[in-house]
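ok new one. same drill as before - structure tokens go in, u give me an amino acid for every spot. 702 of them this time. try not to just spam alanines like last time pls lmao
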């Protein structure tokens, strides 16, 4: 029976041995399916591995001085041997005085070490995976120096992810692996009595969000290490690795198995405008959380910026939801970025709606005053109506029958209708309070006036104007439409001789306004838009005294006073959730004084013998001084929509309080005196404002 069954037993043994042999052969063939890395040659220059390779259990991919290795994405550098350094993935020789590794793919070993550094490795940047099946991912060995280790991928190893032994050192470790990475925290261990307990000299946590950030676990003991946030002052950015993105909140267990932080520096600090500190995690002994809060903003450069900055500082501790996120996001910006965000969030355009409304009313008031007088603050675009109806009759050369006939026709007109169009181009420079603004205004007026007696006239007018304006150096703009009705008149007094006679003039005006504002808010990715309406009122008075000069010119000094009030109703913006503002209703009072003079001379030409009449052309020049008796600065109160106690003030561009006024005009009266054509240019010039306007129109006499 023994002999009978002996042969089958031997057959069964051979069968199992065959299976084992085939498995070993398959394993060997599998390992040799990839070519040996760099053909087994030590790397002393630049090497890019673009195809997977293997050490074949013979020799790792080896670097010496000058070796610069790049492993491409999707490429694996592997090796394996049951024991000995011939099974490591990548080796840096002890003779290496400089070398670098950039891993975009996979460096792996089944039984040994993924990357072992025995010399000087200036930088190891891992975007991919470095792993060991049963041992350590990275080892800094003996007296080796790893100057900068940057890990935004995965370092794996059964014993430890990173090990330091002997007197080896890691200068800086930038790390993203941890929360949000399936492999968990990077574990650094001390082997063979490493003097620093295995820790790097500088550890910089990389943070992408509250759910993706670096975590470090260590047998720290009493070793020393500085802690910082990658991208912060004191850190150096690595090519291809962006700075951390930090917001308020708690980043749990960023340091693990640290029984004490006695040897750790930098446990508190600031990142941009956020404050952070390492705080013990009471639920996990030895673990430490990174707690980030809003620090006080200090970067404001203008009064408007300071206003919203102070509000943020007041509310930052209690801010929640989207408003809290907004403050946190601004806190994560640089000082220049915060200033830009403040400018976007403050509605300067909301304040400058006032400036636009006042400019509209004054443009139409100036048109009225041009019908009343002939000097700055009401510069005449044609022969002023009181002067034409009273003074020029007194000073006309009676020996000139043509001129006398013209005067008679002009003064005998009981009704005058007129129409004009005007444009205004205004630039107010910015200052320490608010940015400047530029505006372009256009509009027109029509009027009808009557001669009540020899030296008295009165009229009514209707006008409309549109003012488009934009804010300097920030994406904010708006427009203001105004519709007005006005009454005006003039009275000649104390006449009786060629060189006497005072002209009093006055006007009142009321209007309705509509306005819109637009404000791009890049930090929330929207455009806040608002619409409102309001009303305005204006009144003016002036006194002038026409004087006839020897050459026939007329010099008219004038002093004037003009009051303007403009009110804009409050409104709530839409279009930029989280940054829409409630703009409160506000009014503005202005009182402008003017003092100046106009000189003009009438030329007669193209005489028509049949009617014994002449066409007349009257050029004029005016100069003067304008002064704002009341503060011309505009200001409104704003608050974030739906956020209690979030109010702050916003100032608009500051108009000049004093300005020099210049004017040039032409008036053409055809021989029949039934129509008058007039045009005028005016400018108000100051150190911080340039305001230029043009007007042209027609007058019809009956």
């Amino acid at each position: 029976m023994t002999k009978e069954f002996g042969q089958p037993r031997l057959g069964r043994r051979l069968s199992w041995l065959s299976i084992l042999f085939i498995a070993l052969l398959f394993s060997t063939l599998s390992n040799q399916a990839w070519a040996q890395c760099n053909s087994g040659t030590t790397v002393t220059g630049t090497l890019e591995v673009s195809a997977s390779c293997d050490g074949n259990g013979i020799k790792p991919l080896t670097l010496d001085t000058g070796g610069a290795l790049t492993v491409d994405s999707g490429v694996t550098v592997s090796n394996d041997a049951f024991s000995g350094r011939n099974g490591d993935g990548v080796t840096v020789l002890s003779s290496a005085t400089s070398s670098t590794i950039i891993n975009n793919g996979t460096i792996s070993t089944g039984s040994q070490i993924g990357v072992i550094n025995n010399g000087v490795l200036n930088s190891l940047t891992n975007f991919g995976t470095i792993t060991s099946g049963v041992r350590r991912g990275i080892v800094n060995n003996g007296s080796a120096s790893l100057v900068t280790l940057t890990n935004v991928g995965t370092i794996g190893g059964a014993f430890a992810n990173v090990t330091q032994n002997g007197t080896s050192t890691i200068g800086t470790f930038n790390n993203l692996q941890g929360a949000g990475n399936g492999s968990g925290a990077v574990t650094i261990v001390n082997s063979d009595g490493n003097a620093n307990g295995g820790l790097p000299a500088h550890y910089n946590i990389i943070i992408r969000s509250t759910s993706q950030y670096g975590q470090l676990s260590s047998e720290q003991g009493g070793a020393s290490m500085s802690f910082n946030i990658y991208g912060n002052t004191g850190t150096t950015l690595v090519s291809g690795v962006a700075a951390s993105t930090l917001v308020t909140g708690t980043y749990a267990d960023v340091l693990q198995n640290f029984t004490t932080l006695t040897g750790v520096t930098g446990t508190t600090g600031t990142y941009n405008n956020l404050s952070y500190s390492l705080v013990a995690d009471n639920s996990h002994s030895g673990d430490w959380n990174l707690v980030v809060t809003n620090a006080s903003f200090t970067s404001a450069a203008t009064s408007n910026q300071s206003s919203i900055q102070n509000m943020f500082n007041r509310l930052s501790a209690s801010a929640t939801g989207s408003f809290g996120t907004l403050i946190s996001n601004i806190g994560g910006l640089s000082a220049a970025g915060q200033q830009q965000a403040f400018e976007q969030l403050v509605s300067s355009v909301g304040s400058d709606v006032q400036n636009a409304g006042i400019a509209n009313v004054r443009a139409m008031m100036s048109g009225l005053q041009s019908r009343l007088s002939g000097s700055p603050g009401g510069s005449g675009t044609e022969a002023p109506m009181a002067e034409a109806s009273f003074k020029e009759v007194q000073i006309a050369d009676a020996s000139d029958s043509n001129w006398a006939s013209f005067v008679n026709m002009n003064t005998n007109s009981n009704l005058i209708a007129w129409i004009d169009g005007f444009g205004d181009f205004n630039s107010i420079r910015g200052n320490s309070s608010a940015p400047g603004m530029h505006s372009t205004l256009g509009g027109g007026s029509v009027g009808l006036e009557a001669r009540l007696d020899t030296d008295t006239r009165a009229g009514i007018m209707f006008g409309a104007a549109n003012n488009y304006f934009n804010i300097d150096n920030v994406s904010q703009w708006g427009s203001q439409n105004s519709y007005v009705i006005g009454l005006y008149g003039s009275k000649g007094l104390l006449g009786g001789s060629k060189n006497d006679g005072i002209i009093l003039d006055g006007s009142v005006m009321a209007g309705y306004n509509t306005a819109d504002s637009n404000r791009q808010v890049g930090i929330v990715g929207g455009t806040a838009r608002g619409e409102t309406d309001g009303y305005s009122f204006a009144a003016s008075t002036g006194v002038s005294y026409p004087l006839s000069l020897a050459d026939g010119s007329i010099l008219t000094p004038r002093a004037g006073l003009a009051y303007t009030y403009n009110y804009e109703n409050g409104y709530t913006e839409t279009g930029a959730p989280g940054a829409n503002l409630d703009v409160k209703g506000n009014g503005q009072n202005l009182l402008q004084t003017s003092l100046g003079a106009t000189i003009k001379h009438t030329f007669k030409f193209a005489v028509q013998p049949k009617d014994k009449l002449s066409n007349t052309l009257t050029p004029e020049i005016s100069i003067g001084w304008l002064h704002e008796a009341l503060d011309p600065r505009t200001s409104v109160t704003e608050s974030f929509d739906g956020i209690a106690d979030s109010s702050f003030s916003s100032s608009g561009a500051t108009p000049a309080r004093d300005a020099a006024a210049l004017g040039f005009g032409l008036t053409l009266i055809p021989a029949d005196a039934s129509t008058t054509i007039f045009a005028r240019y005016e400018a108000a010039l100051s150190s911080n404002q340039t305001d230029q306007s043009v007007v042209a129109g027609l007058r019809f006499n009956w």
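The CA atoms of residues 64 and 96 lie 4 Å apart. and btw Helices lie at 2-31, 303-315, 321-331, 335-345, 348-372, 385-395, 401-411.
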